[in-house]
Design brief:
Blueprint lengths: L4 H11 L4 E7 L5 H14 L4 E4 L10 H12 L4 H12 L7 E5 L1 H7 L1 H11 L3 E4 L8 H10 L2 E6 L5 H10 L4 E4 L12 H12 L6 E4 L5 H8 L4 E4 L1 H10 L3 H15 L1
Parallel strand pairs: 1-2, 1-8, 2-3, 3-4, 4-5, 5-6, 6-7, 7-8
Length: 264
């Protein structure tokens, strides 16, 4: 079985004693062309894995900043189908950087799990993180993703029990995304001591890399989290930058990525 782009990337980083930098932006925010240019700019600035938000009308896990990003993306005409076209175009000049789609069950269910899996792998998608499908209900989707070699990324949270964590770790491939805060994206400040303790607890159940997101706003917070995590996920600050910078987003976002890359 071939090693996925995600596994290969994370293995290489570990061998180099480096931490993964995983930025998140919403596809279509503010438009198709700017999203594509920003993805390439982030890779040049030091991003290792790209998380791309699938626009949805009710992104319940997101704070106000990313919710507005979803609204702008939908207003620009972005859809799951167009997002797969975007990934395909990205792949025409970058066949190495892993891409994870992050979103909600509805668009994937609407397309159909099998049809989505086939279209996603054909476009060059490497992983899927579905916020609102609990592990107990992920069997059918997991089967289809496994069939085409797409990693199924799952969330772990401060409130995740030991029993549930073990179950999630058994299902997951690629990496595990630890939500460092109780609440929505972009909320509050990270308790780095709790993050360190929870990651140590979860490492007993899995050999997969543990990446941390929610609340990482700058180079300083990323540096502290990277001491105990295998990677850091940065989202709200980038989406906010997209809102402010518009078509100048590629340069503005790349500057933030470069600063965080050097910090971790």
């Amino acid at each position: 079985m071939t090693v996925s782009r995600i596994a290969s990337c994370l293995q290489q980083l570990k061998a180099q004693n480096k931490k993964a930098l995983i930025p998140y932006i919403v596809a279509g925010d503010p438009d198709y062309a700017t999203t594509l240019a920003t993805l390439h700019a982030m890779v040049k600035a030091g991003a290792d894995i790209l998380e791309i938000g699938v626009p949805f009308s009710d992104p319940m896990a997101e704070g106000p900043v990313i919710q507005k990003g979803h609204e702008r993306a939908l207003a620009s005409g972005m859809s799951l189908k167009k997002l797969l076209e975007l990934v395909k175009e990205f792949r025409s000049t970058d066949n190495n950087t892993p891409i994870v789609l992050m979103g909600y069950a509805n668009p994937v269910e609407h397309m159909g799990y099998a049809a989505f899996a086939d279209a996603a792998v054909a476009a060059g998608v490497d992983g899927l993180l579905t916020v609102d499908i609990p592990p107990e209900e992920a069997g059918d989707l997991n089967r289809e993703l496994k069939r085409v070699g797409i990693d199924n990324i799952f969330l772990l949270a401060p409130t995740t029990t030991d029993v549930r964590a073990k179950h999630i770790c058994e299902l997951a491939t690629g990496y595990l995304y630890y939500v460092s805060l109780k609440g929505v994206t972009g909320a509050g400040n990270i308790d780095t001591t709790e993050v360190r303790e929870k990651l140590a607890q979860f490492r007993a159940y899995t050999s997969l890399p543990l990446c941390v997101g929610f609340g990482i706003k700058d180079a300083a917070s990323a540096r502290v989290v990277a001491e105990s995590a295998d990677g850091v996920v940065v989202g709200s600050v980038l989406v906010n930058t997209m809102a402010v910078s518009g078509k100048k987003s590629p340069d503005a976002v790349a500057e933030i990525i470069a600063g965080i890359r050097s910090a971790i």
